[in-house]
Amino acid sequence: MYYKTAGESHGHGILALVEDFPAGLEIDKSKIDLELRRRQGGYGRGERQKIETDTVDILTGLWQGKSTGAPITLWIRNRDYRIDTAPEITQPRPGHADLAGSIKYALPIRPILERASARETAGRVAAGALAKQLLEKHGIIVAGFVRSIGSLSLPTPPEELAPNELLQRRNSSELYTVYPEHDTVLKWRIDEIGNTGDTIGGVIEVRVFGAPIGLGSCMQWDAKLDGKLAQAVMSIQAIKGVEIGLGFESARTLGSVMHDPIGYDNTLLQTPSQGFVRKTNNAGGIEGGISNGQPIIVRAAMKPIPTLKKPLDSIDLNSKQPMPTIYERSDVCAVPAASVVVENVVAFEIARQLKS
């Protein structure tokens, strides 16, 4: 299963084309719209989210509400499109594709800015929300949530936390964390940063429950599940680090502690683990590039959004003289919204592996 997206962030809309989706699955459009709304939510978002109200139109690939096996075309209309009339920018913004993209493609900054915008992720969320409906048929649940905002880290949710309870707690939080009781402190920190004209990032975690043994491959380097997930998540705007399971902490851990001993429980024979049990899940559900029946755990580090109200130093591309950046509307903190994107990108990649 594959998807492609097209359309600039401020063009007439975002189009996602999902190929090789199986036939006969009843598709609930409202579930896709719900994920699109969640992507636009989360404390710390900017003015654009007050303009757009994203919903999806499914243009092809369905008949009487069921998938036909033909490519499924998802269309998300933009209310705000001004790429042809917006003023040109000549000061590349640090942290964006402005400078490198303008040089690489020999284009002004504006078309680079629009195409590289995170608005594009609306298409990926829609595709992921579609993929989740396939995963549900296989008993697989994907849940993403915020682990930290800046230096304010939240407790690690217990691994035995049931997916339904995790999602219920996540959905009760304005920050999309599993600890809504900490929202007040996190919101205060975001407001404090926003009042200085700055931005703030954070860490996102996604857990995949119910994935069977055998997704991915150890036979080819480019078919490893952890490699596929890392590439998919790393491709999201502002993501600067991805880890599976214990991740970077594994470099500071001895092998006798790091690796998860294997046991067997015959009463769990009919579960995704086929009865093989672990006391720990430091591998994050993936060994040798293959899912091992344990929950898959992926984390992503998101940098602060690089569009700041407080100007950064840059140069004018025409005169090559020093000049501060110009502010384009943006978020103070997009970590909650990014958690929705990471969750749905992971869901799509897991669904792809079911077909491989």
Average pLDDT confidence is: 91
Query: What's the total helix number?
Result: 10
Morphology: globular
Question: Order of strands across the biggest sheet?
Answer: 8-7-9-15-10
CATH class: Alpha Beta
CATH superfamily: Chorismate synthase AroC
Structural class: alpha+beta
Stretches where pLDDT is under 50 for at least 5 consecutive residues are none
Q: Please provide the ordered H/E string of secondary-structure elements.
A: EEHHEEEEHHHEEHHEHEHEEEEEEEH
| CATH architecture label name | 4-Layer Sandwich
Give the tally of structural domains. Answer: 1
Number of separate strands: 17
Largest sheet: 5 strands, antiparallel
Distance between the termini: 8 Å
Here the CATH topology equals Chorismate synthase, AroC fold
Helix coverage percent: 25-40%
Q: Would you kindly provide a written description of the structure presented here, covering whatever features stand out?
A:
This protein has a single domain (2-355), classed as Chorismate synthase AroC (Chorismate synthase, AroC fold). Helices cover 30% and strands 21% of the residues. It has helices at residues 29-40, 48-51, 98-105, 109-116, 121-137, 163-171, 183-195, 225-234, 255-258, 335-355, and strands at residues 2-6, 13-19, 56-60, 62-63, 66-67, 72-77, 141-149, 152-153, 202-209, 239-244, 262-264, 276-278, 286-287, 290-291, 296-302, 313-315, 322-324. The chain has a five-stranded antiparallel beta sheet with strand order 8-7-9-15-10. A four-stranded antiparallel beta sheet has the order 1-2-6-3, covered by helices on one side. The protein starts with a strand and ends with a helix. The model has no long low-confidence stretch (mean pLDDT 91).
